[in-house]
Amino acid sequence: MSTDRINLIYVASIGRSGTTLFESMLGAHPHLATCGEVHLWPHEIMMGGVRPCGSGHYVQTCPFWQEMEARVDPLHQPGPQLHHFREHHDGGRTVRWQRWNDFAPGPLAPRVQAQIDQYGANNEALFRYFRDLVTERTGTRPEWIVDASKDPYRLLWLLRSGRFNIKVVHMVKHPCGFAYSVTKPWVQSPRWPSAVPRLYYTARQSTAWVIQNHLFGRIAEHHLTADDYMLMQYETLASTPHDTFEQACQMIGLPYVPEAVTDFRDGSQFTIAGNPMRYEDRGIELDERWKRDLPPSSRSLARTITTVNRRSFGYA
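Now predict its structure.
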């Protein structure tokens, strides 16, 4: 194991919570480079490209990711590979009972720790080649690499591998705002049958909101210090982006660069996948359309299901 540990900023979230906005701000900081949702890279290779990377190309035609694959092919690393916790491009399992004990403090069974060690080694190779290639392409070596994969199990194994200096920014969004984001196709449909899938996905995704945020909370409690963890609400970031980003920079130990906020759309040069909003040209806007458009039945269902822990993340 190298004594030169990779400095890693991990964006933790269930998704649809402003992570692309924040990740882009990080990527626009001159001391940082973001690789996006890098655990999707193997799926992008296997499927011949699903979402354009930060350059606007798919991975098979992007010069940066072509060179990355030549240096470290994630599909030829020993298991568990990079996408171990991402069974499909569009998602991984929310509940993994066999991994539940991994979140507790203390040592793990040797077999499990051996898997974690190999997973950590695979990711360390990836991040080192990424840092080297960014340095070659830009002429500046990034001090920190940003991983916006969001998955709690991935974060836990990276931490338990002991190979990285990790700072975690845990992003959350109001449960009703999150429910609106994931059910918009049915919210916007005037046909009455759309209520069935809308309520089904509201219930399903609200349950996922509870579980994933709970797991991130356990990680913060048992595997991170207060100096290495920051809880960030989407609403706060979108309302006061400069102040919020400055607080994040202080937590990471970086100088605040206001241009990273104003020029955040320049911060996606090397990213894998992510929300399509990264290709738009709008400024930062607080989106709370759910207050107007989310049906009362969805609102009530989301609030009921998330009663168990939403106050822990700042939502009454």
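Strands lie at 6-12, 32-34, 144-150, 164-172, 229-233.
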